[in-house]
Input
Amino acid sequence: MYTNSAYWHQTRLDFKDKKHPIFIGSCGTYRLYTIKKLPTHRPRGRLDYQLLYVASGKAHFYFDGKEEIVSAGNMVLYRPKEEQRYYYYGADHPEVYWVHFTGNNVKNILRKYGIADGVHVIYSGVSMEYKHLYMNMIEELQLRKEDYEELLVYYFMQLLILLHRQILVKPHKKNPMIMDDMAQAVDYFRMHYNKQINIEKYAASKNISVSWFIQNFKQYTNTTPAQYIQNLRLSNAKSLLETTNYNVTEISNLVRYENPLYFSRFFRKQFGASPSQFRKQLRQNEENQMTEPEKK
Output
């Protein structure tokens, strides 16, 4: 399992904020690979709101005692004092991002961005932009630089705007059969990103034209199949840099970049630093966090 999370003032206690229109309390992500089951049950809910994004695989949620399996490309919203009961299973390969938020105007803000009262599951489509915004919030909460609380709200509002745009997509563009086909494609690419993937052959195997497939895939994920696969490779390379001691060449090969120079170029374009620089910065940040109490 991979997990990365951060909390305001490093406390896991939930709270209700009445001073700000909206305030971010915590944020994090889970990716399950080997753990069989990760359950969460809060019978009395929390004092704040929670917005979860299922980026890959699927997760099992319960609303009013009824199970609903939520697949990649959806977000789930819990409101204050609502029972929270959900399960992640390793066999489903879930990758989930979450953020807890509170404030004195949250209900109106959610309404403004198309999230009606009582709605729990919101179709979002699969997009690397969502992941980037969640990761930006995690980083801001971890580093706590100047004005980070304001920047957290800025990132969260971007998330709501992107979600609102997806909500406004005309209903006929959300054909359930097409969505299911695209969800299968996303799952296939996620499972085989580190192998040679031919978009034309994949479309042919589904008896659909390449142009039709690319058009609908882009509508579903906000990116082309080739870009999505590249983003998967870079995202997983980033995780390997964070969690392993493999060198850059080894990681390049693991995520299917045969040329380490091409890999470094694409990585820098995506994350603003070369793989080596990224790992160095990460270790420096970890060292700074470990020594911070001593400085105080």
User: Anything to note?
Assistant: The mean pLDDT is 90. The radius of gyration is 20 Å. Residues 275-295 form the longest helix (21 residues). The first strand starts at residue 2 and ends at 7.
